[in-house]
Amino acid sequence: MTEEQRMQEGRRMFQIFAARMFEQRVLTAYREKVARERQEKLLEELDEEKTFDAAREAKKQRDAEKKKLKKQ
Fold first, then answer.
1. Strands, E, within 1-72: which ranges?
2. Is this model's pTM higher than 0.85 or not?
3. Origin, by domain of life (predicted)?
4. Which DSSP category does 72 fall into?
5. What is the DSSP letter of 1?
């Protein structure tokens, strides 16, 4: 193997290494973004559920109050 061939092989190996490092960084960033989006969606769903439960409880109390007033 000549000096020129070794240099080319070295450059090629470095390019492969750099491409893999870049790929890993992009993949990690993507996974973190997806995880963040899922977490935000879950928090929104929990908040909606909490709001729905509170509204249902308030309606239940209003209905009980109306029923009480009708009996009087």
1. none
2. no
3. Eukaryota
4. -
5. -
